[in-house]
TrEMBL record:
It comes from the Bacteria. GO terms for molecular function: catalytic activity; cobalamin binding. This is D-lysine 5,6-aminomutase subunit alpha. Gene3D superfamilies: D-Lysine 5,6-aminomutase alpha subunit. Residues 5-511 form the D-Lysine 5,6-aminomutase alpha subunit domain. SUPFAM superfamilies: Cobalamin (vitamin B12)-dependent enzymes. InterPro entries: Cbl-dep_enz_cat (IPR016176), Lys-AminoMut_A (IPR015130), Lys-AminoMut_asu_sf (IPR037086).
Length: 534
């Protein structure tokens, strides 16, 4: 990519180096721990699904059973595989018997390590091969049907009823949308289980369930054939069930997932230890599935000023990039977030927005950056709001953003009606078409306002990242250095779901993902046991 802004490359290297150290420090912390959500994900990838007589998801039943017995630190796979071999039953059948109370997994003899690893590797290969087949199907469909031009037009549906979401999603695709994001029901990120089946009773959005994913995927495939282009499906795997929802999305061929390393900590008060452990495994799954992740830096500017805190957005992008790399996620799947959120009353605010967007584009040249519309400074004046969205769209095409979450003129008034979305799509299509190659004709004045602003933001981000490197990410979060939000190491939701791994911890899916993504295996007994099947 042409470097239109003459940014200090040495500063960019310093920022990346500091972010790498921050992520590496956290990776060493993560390597020694697991969570109830990670272990439930292992069961789901083994094929465990459904609920017990009281409606509790079977993955929760099995994991809670072992947690109560104090036997989860070896990994759920150790006990589950032992039971499958001893009883000669599938993972689903074993889970159902645990739910019925007819077996106690801790009373079944453990199998020898070579047999455990051999069986685990076979199960992991079967589960991951299903995900690989979905990725191949997506690639084939895009090749056959084509897709929209970048920036992809990203719109939301949020009815609470999956069947009404289907109607709205198909309508949006016919209007020109490239990505349909099904907003989750309010508060789902804070429940420590995944609801089951098709749902019609969400609030402010629709519950993320595997059946809902399947229903919407089928609907978008149908409308994609109708309009002649592949329509991407987006949902949210942030929250207490982050890796589980990533696995469900991979199994149902979702294309985009909200998957931020820090969002749940800052904006949902989920314990920082829990979130950082969960994001690592979830991103490995998303990487292998070919799913584009979206990060949530745009939210920083809803709690902090867009001018004063611009460097915190860039710093977080650097950190999210490094966490993604540790999980094997390539740049082409890193939808790093940022937003058009400067107060429109500020003189030359448009120039400052261009500076931020162009800077992000140059620093992360291969990432399909996700650009968020104005929200904080929208009012009930829909005509002014429509103009603000138009300015946002112009910055996007000018700076080559990858994913454009469309702004609605009725933002902050109500959930958008179909005609609101139609106008938003028409606005973006008009500007993108008329300014499609504007960026090729525009150069920025050396040493001008835009270039100086971008360099200033970069310099502040470097200072911040090096401070975080010195004190550690946990301490930085406790000090409120990101988004002006302070969190506690022991506070928030979900800490009781964090478990220290024993030396003989075994997660065959993590091992197999690391093998396929060409990541280094974790040190310790689990890595050594792979030698039995090598």
């Amino acid at each position: 990519m042409e470097q239109k802004l003459k940014l200090d490359q040495a500063q960019i290297k310093r920022a990346r180096k500091a972010a790498e150290v921050i992520a590496k420090d956290m990776d060493e912390f993560i390597a020694k721990r697991t969570t109830v959500a990670v272990e439930r994900t292992v069961l789901r990838l083994m094929g465990v699904d459904g609920v017990d007589a009281e409606g509790v998801p079977l993955p929760n039943v099995v994991v809670d059973h072992l947690l109560e017995k104090g036997e989860l630190s070896q990994g759920v796979a150790t006990r589950m595989i032992g039971a499958m071999l001893y009883l000669e039953q599938s993972a689903q059948e074993v889970a159902e018997r645990v739910a019925q109370g007819s077996i106690d997994l801790t009373e079944i003899p453990l199998v020898d390590y070579p047999i455990l690893v051999h069986t685990g590797q076979k199960l992991a290969m079967e589960g991951l091969n299903k995900i690989a087949a979905n990725r191949l199907q997506r690639d084939t469909m895009i090749k056959q049907m084509g897709e929209g031009k970048k920036p992809y037009l990203y719109v939301i549906v949020a009815t609470g009823d999956i069947y009404e979401d289907v109607v709205q999603g198909k309508s949006a695709a016919r209007q020109g949308a490239d990505i349909i994001a099904v907003i989750r029901s309010t508060g789902q990120s804070l429940i420590d289980y995944v609801p089951y089946g098709a749902t019609r009773e969400g609030f402010g959005g629709t519950y993320a369930t595997q059946e809902n994913f399947r229903i919407m995927r089928q609907a978008l495939d149908e409308v994609g054939k109708e309009v002649g282009r592949y329509i991407r499906l987006c949902n949210y795997c942030s929250g207490l069930c982050m890796p589980e929802i990533a696995a469900m999305g991979a199994l149902e061929r979702l294309d985009v997932m909200l998957n931020d390393a820090l969002y749940g900590i800052l904006f949902r008060d989920i314990n920082m230890q829990r979130t950082l452990i969960d994001q690592a495994f979830s991103r490995m799954i998303n990487s292998y599935a070919g799913i584009i992740i979206n990060t949530g830096e745009d939210n920083y500017l809803t709690t902090a000023d867009a001018i004063e805190a611009a460097h915190t957005v860039l710093a977080s992008q650097f950190i999210n990039e490094q966490f993604a790399k540790f999980a094997g996620l390539p740049p082409e799947q890193m939808g790093l977030g940022h937003a058009f959120e400067i107060n429109p009353e500020i003189e030359d605010g448009f120039l400052l927005e261009v500076a931020q967007a162009q800077m992000a584009r140059q620093i992360f040249p291969d990432a399909p950056l996700k650009y968020m519309p104005p929200t904080k400074h929208m009012t009930g004046n829909i005509f002014r709001g429509h103009i603000q969205d138009a300015m946002f769209n112009l910055v996007s095409v000018l700076t080559g953003q990858g994913i454009q979450l469309l702004g609605m003129m009725t933002e902050a008034m109500h959930t958008p009606h179909i005609h609101d979305r139609q106008l938003a799509i028409e606005n973006a299509q008009y500007i993108f078409n008329n300014a499609r190659h504007l960026s090729e004709e525009i150069y920025f004045k050396p040493g001008g306002r835009i270039e100086k602003r971008a360099q200033e933001v970069l310099d502040k981000a470097v200072m911040m990242l090096e401070e975080v490197q010195e004190i550690g990410l946990f301490a930085a979060l406790e000090k409120g250095m990101l988004a002006d939000v302070k969190r506690s190491l022991e506070g928030g939701k979900g800490l009781d779901g964090v478990i220290e791994r024993t030396d003989d911890y075994f997660n065959p899916f993590e091992d197999e993902l690391r093998e396929r993504l060409k990541l280094p295996q974790r040190e310790g007994a689990a890595y050594e046991r792979r030698s039995y099947t090598s």
